[in-house]
Amino acid sequence: MDFWRVFLVAPLSIIVLFILSKLIGNKQIANLNIFDYINGITIGSIAAEMATCEFDELADCTLALVIYAVMVFGLSVLSQKSLKMRRFFTGKTIVIFDRGKLYKKNLNTAKLDFNEFIAMLRTKGYFNLDEIETAFLEQNGQLSVLPKDKKRPLTPDDMKIRVLQSRPEKVVIMDGHILTKNLNETGNNTEWLEKMLKSQNKKLSEVFVAFCDGDNNLKIVECSDKNPSNDSFE
């Protein structure tokens, strides 16, 4: 095998695969349904073949990747336009358990046995079927559980308590550098940031990562070069 050929072609296959994956969408790396799983395997296999093929076969592999990506994108658009096509390609939600009844036929359709179903419930924190009102198997293979009202956690609405809506934290400092765009999105500027750093006796160059939370507070994550040697789970 020509080392230099592989050295040049392998990075090219990664670049092509990355570009096509971005065009197809992030769903490839999120919760996968059957259709997404097949897409990922096929595109990955073609890219792997591309990394080791001869130069005269490079165009054929690239063309195959592009054609397959276009087909996937087209089918994705089609499934968004048509409910029947979406159900055909991605499947539909299956009711496994509802109101004290276990639907054995749906369990078989989902290719699950009862022990697997119970194990999936345990990972959700439910160890007793009496706690569950309904359990669904989603298209991506994940189990969704609706607990009985008397078993669900108490919420502020139940207690008539008014709470403020929290907002996602934004990273404003990374590796000692100010992320100006993120900082501007918080409604603050560098003067505010410098003031907050000074109040916490920190220099910009000393900060590894810092967030601005929904209450407009600067949260600095402490960083240590030490490597704990003990195993906490031993």
Describe this structure in words.
It is a single chain. α1 (3-24) packs antiparallel against α2 (34-52), α1 packs parallel to α3 and α2 (34-52) runs antiparallel to α3 (55-81). The chain has eight helices and eight strands; from the N terminus they run ααααββααββββααββ. A four-stranded antiparallel β-sheet has the order 2-1-3-4. Strands 6-5-7-8 form a four-stranded antiparallel β-sheet. A hairpin with a 2-residue loop joins β1 (94-98) and β2. Helices cover 46% and strands 14% of the residues. The protein starts with a helix and ends in a 13-residue tail after the last strand. The chain is α+β, with helices and mostly antiparallel strands and 234 residues long. The radius of gyration is 26 Å and the shape is flat. The protein has helices spanning 3-24, 34-52, 55-81, 83-90, 104-109, 114-123, 180-185, 190-199; strands at 94-98, 101-102, 132-137, 143-147, 170-174, 177-178, 209-212, 218-221.
Key descriptive features of the protein:
alpha+beta; 8 strands; 8 helices; 46% helix; 234 residues
Would you summarize the structure shown here?
The chain has 234 residues and is an alpha+beta fold. It has 8 helices and 8 strands; from the N terminus they run ααααββααββββααββ. It has a 4-stranded antiparallel beta sheet. A 4-stranded antiparallel beta sheet has the order 6-5-7-8.
